[in-house]
Amino acid sequence: MIPQSFITDLLNRVDIVDVVGRYVQLKKGGANYMGLCPFHNEKSPSFTVSPTKQFYHCFGCGAHGTAIGFLIEYSGMGFVDAVKDLSQSVGMIVPEADDRIPPAQRAAQQAQSLAMTDALNQACDFYRAQLRTAPAAVAYLKGRGLTGEVAARFGMGYAPSGWDSLRSVFNDYDALALVESGLVIDKVDEDGGNKKRYDRFRERIMFPIRNSKGQVIGFGGRVMDGGEPKYLNSPETPLFQKGLELYGLFEARQAIRDAGYVLVTEGYMDVVALAQLGFPQAVATLGTACTSTHVQKLLRQTDNVIFSFDGDKAGRRAARRALEACLPQVSDSKTIKFLFLPQEHDPDSYVREFGADAFAREIDEAIPLSQFLLREVTTEHDLDTPEGRAHVQFDAKPLLQAMAPSALRLQIVRGLANLTASTPAEIEGLFELSKPVSVARKAPPRQGRPEPVGLELQITRMLISHPTLSLTLDATATKAFESFGGEQAERLCQLVAQAQALGENATFAALSQGLKEGSSEFDRLISEIASEPESDIDQDRVWLTSAVRQIKMDVLKQELNQLFSSGLTPDQVSARYREITAQQDLLSREAANETPAKFA
């Protein structure tokens, strides 16, 4: 687990304007920066980035957060990856609780990673330059209907025929980073003597593969004739794992948001061709079966994922593997569909023959995951016989077990029960499904804590806006907050403790990030504060001091009113009376020396 102190330090070092500005065109507008929101379609800018709050907020769709939150929402990164990305940009090393790697070794790993990234970028520039001077490669791409514009958008290039063409790019062709990044291959004689180094990619159209940050992490190379293999990918490296990456996702992110769905295809050329033909929301797996991580990445980008497969046997097998990868990620708020084209077509050829409108109709009519699952388990069995129905249930069991309890799983269970002459409860019992839905008794919903109001609300807003003000509150202040009663007092005291734990470097962004990780209880309030002009911390400090003093005075007054009926002995009453009046006098003298604050 990454320490909160590190998150605070990181958010204090990065500039959210720079982070967001890498992806959104921002213009200065008063104290903030404005731009078109990347999270919903709009023509007039309603997206603001505050350099003082280090926070973004959209007045149109309500999206808001820190630099970490922006990377998570925009790039589809996980929390840890987003933190690591920002840390790398400011030269910080993320501490890990179970990290036993010596600092020197970790520094060497980071140096290796940077060297590999640099090598891949140089190679990408080289391949792109070679494409401009390769008539055969240009003719091939034009023959596939591609323009120079779309080739440039995807950074496509050409690897020439020489065995060591990259020697002209790298002064040190023997550098270890070239092998580690997969650009070259070292071949050693059988006796372990002479070593020969040569380029991995030769005479191939080159497709750079980018990660969520837009960095080149590998390549896919396609032959232009009938050579084998048809596609050659970079090997697995510390930067590139095929089961984790999707080709074209970096380029397609905004198009996916605009279209409201992502189309998953089977190859590089499908992605590039579809982008030119009006479907830039397409991505592809990298010569490997779709994995659960792929699906998780896609569902971070959109609520609607559509897989496109050829209608042949290979396409059906790939679709089945994709189905199995999807099941652990299925939820009631997400939609996953499967599109099967005629056997003689891939997406590229289908659009060129029948047009974009016809392909869009195919997308609209794609088969929902639930329907595809039931079709998969029933196609080869006779539902008119007990044996056939038993086979169907046998095939369906591991698929349903892979799903989390949900309304969609219940719908599939009901469909399967109807097909196999069973009841939903029988299916769930027979399959030993976790948390059966059809027979479960729902517990009454747990009531959340009441929304803060009045003085509690004002103090809460103040502490979230300026967390360092919490350092002015001592134990007597938090004790006084108990007068709010029950859960309200507990919430306010927890907020004070969380803010104080951040120390003197606490900021609105850092506290908001920590609160967001814990629960969504303060999310609406954070959104409101983010959308407002920043308040003056010195005025707020005076207000908070006065407010806490008034709470203490009210608590003392209430205790004084109840003192003589408290059951204490006369001596105890007398002693406590003197203590209370002394504290009241002290608070009154403090108030006399300060400008009174207005509060509810």
TrEMBL record:
Zn finger spans (CHC2-type): 37-61
Gene3D superfamilies, A to Z: 3.40.1360.10, DNA primase, catalytic core, N-terminal domain, DnaG, RNA polymerase domain, helical bundle, Zinc finger, CHC2-type domain
This enzyme's EC code(s): 2.7.7.101
Cofactor(s) this protein cannot do without: Zn(2+)
Keywords in alphabetical order: DNA replication, DNA-binding, DNA-directed RNA polymerase, Magnesium, Metal-binding, Nucleotidyltransferase, Primosome, Transcription, Transferase, Zinc, Zinc-finger
GO cellular component terms listed in the entry, alphabetical order: cytoplasm; DNA-directed RNA polymerase complex; primosome complex
Keyword Cell cycle appears in the UniProt entry: no
Free-text remark on how the cofactor is bound: Binds 1 zinc ion per monomer.
Domain Toprim: 260-342
Catalysed reactions listed for this entry: ssDNA + n NTP = ssDNA/pppN(pN)n-1 hybrid + (n-1) diphosphate
PROSITE patterns assigned: TOPRIM
UniProt keyword Transport present: no
Matches recorded under SUPFAM superfamilies: DNA primase core, Zinc beta-ribbon
Oligomeric form and interacting partners: Monomer. Interacts with DnaB.
Family: Belongs to the DnaG primase family.
UniProt-listed HAMAP family: DNA_primase_DnaG
Function: RNA polymerase that catalyzes the synthesis of short RNA molecules used as primers for DNA polymerase during DNA replication.
Record remark on domains: Contains an N-terminal zinc-binding domain, a central core domain that contains the primase activity, and a C-terminal DnaB-binding domain.
Protein known as: DNA primase
The organism of origin for this protein: Massilia forsythiae
Organismal lineage: Bacteria, Pseudomonadati, Pseudomonadota, Betaproteobacteria, Burkholderiales
